[in-house]
Amino acid sequence: MSDFQQQALKLAALQRRGHDAGWLSDLRESGARQWMRSAWPGRKTELWKYTPLKALQNQSFEDWAQPQPGWQDDIELLPVNGCRLVFVNGVFDETQSDALPSQVSLFSRASEQGQQVLRDTLGTVLDTERHLFAALSNAWADEGVLLHVPANTVLEQPVYVVHVSTPQAQPSVASTRVLAVLEQGSKAELIEHYVSAGQQQNGFVNALTEVSMGANAAFRHTRINLEDESLLHIGGVHVALHRDARFEGFTIAEGSELKRIDYQVTHREPGAHLGLDGVYLAHGHQLLDYHTNIEHAAPHGTTDEVFRGIIGDRARAVFNGRIHIHPHAQKTLAELSNRNLLTSRTAEIDTKPELEIYADDVRCAHGATVSQLDGTALYYLQSRGITAEQARVMLSFGFINELLQQIPREEIREYLQRHLQVLFERSDSLIGDAGPLELHDDAAPADAGGKH
Amino acid sequence: MLEINELSAAVEGEPILKELSLSIGDGEVHAIMGPNGSGKSTLGNVLTGREGYEITGGSVRFNGKDLLEMDVQERAHEGVFLAFQYPVEIPGVSNMEFLKTAVDAKRKQAGQEPMSSVDFMRLARETSKQVQLDPSFLKRGVNEGFSGGEKKRNEILQMMLLEPSLCILDETDSGLDIDALQIIADGVNAMRDEKRSFLVVTHYQRLLDYIVPDKVHVLAGGRIVKTGGKELALELEKKGYSWLEDEVA
To answer: The complex's ipTM?
Structure first.
């Protein structure tokens, strides 16, 4: 076991539980066992090849992060008209949260029925063999948000969960957990917003969301990861789709010393749909890794996945998009597109679309490109009197905004557009040099696309 | 206004313009015609400072200033405008935002404050009606999904908003039907005055029925081989270009 694995187990024992959660103990124990016996990922571990966990290993995490007051001045929340729940360093902040409707509760305050749902479902959507840190989340299972939408019920207002992190004196950890259970024919929306107050966070957050969708249920999920770059974040969104269920996801992240986000989605029954758009932005010395793994285990499923990234300066980003079509998953339609903009010669992207197709009657397409800003478009803008720097900002913004403008909820769309505009205008290192870049052979547009 | 003197330019070592000379006075409309590959588009690109064109000789003075010393946006600020043969699509950047940024950049150069959004939107809507471009196109991505004619009208819209003193139209008529051509020509004619000059690069004489030039030049083999009045265009239409190339050779 690595030092961090041992520290994490000690921390599990140290958890100050605000509630009697005996009904979570099985999950904790199995999580801990799995965590203990798993090999610590190294450079030869395929799933972690480009993402070293040095930042976790180099520190000694000895305590849980504590909630801190006064973070509000530092943070702009989304003006979402819905039910807001705020967690600070993983601890629920009642004063900043709304009254909860019957479909939403904390694990610690779950009704008997809610506890039953948790017992039946929590952890069942996860693939802990593939996802080590999902096992850790089980080992650390304690507080969390349960969103349980009964059959044929529409939750009119979105649930907005804010995860705030604040600077800690000593290296500290936090765990966040969300379980959404949508029964047959139900409909809901969840927005998760990870945000930091202040710099020098000294923290690690293990953030896990599980979604179980019954037949014909519809769910819209947004995960925003715009924390300070000093916060280490490993997160996962694990989704199980049953017959004709529809999951529409959007995610955006800025890099940090270590940020890794996994989407693990399984089409368990026929006719389900996954739509997933993602944006990643890394500059400075940041590291940012998105892994998506889509399992088509049933026929007639559709997946439409689009990820775009801008990587500048000396930052590194990883995008790995796996689509696995099982032998009987006939008539699957799956598309994956990944486009990357490199704005400096020292920036790096490792992009890998992985298609594994074992059915013969499917349509599956993927494409990955790596390029720089289009010289003709830069010239066009400059020929209208726009400065080179402004032109770079506009083109970078446009590249990302193509995905943002598809976000149906206006308050999220406008918040992110504003955030990006500021980020691009402020951050030379993200949009690159003042002058237009020329394409060189070693950085020519690479197209790894194909159709199967 | 524009004095081009023995201008030579090359692309990737290949000479394209060869000691080309041309002089355009205030308020004049000059047409440049010529066969494909004669250097027509290169001239527009060189005058606006596009990268990848190497100036190997000669000079260009614009209102007395050395144009070749300026970078792309400076030339725009000085009043040079090129209506692109192939306008660029920029998804994700709204046409309105693009136009406002361009107009504000020009105003900033002139020491003026940016226009208020309300004022600009009104101006842009009114101007887009003049080129018969539905104002809904202002909300779309720059040229994104526009038809060929809509793209060209969007170029004229930019020209009207930026009010340049030298307007270069690079084959703006190519691929347009008569109706679309007329809209473009009306826009151009509305902008003609004794100060503003036009350099109309075209492959077809038809455009010059609608935008009547003061002078017609024939560009062949990288230089101007013949200059005449508007009747020269008709002659070219009838006889083609080969007799000129023969004459030069």
So the answer is: 0.96
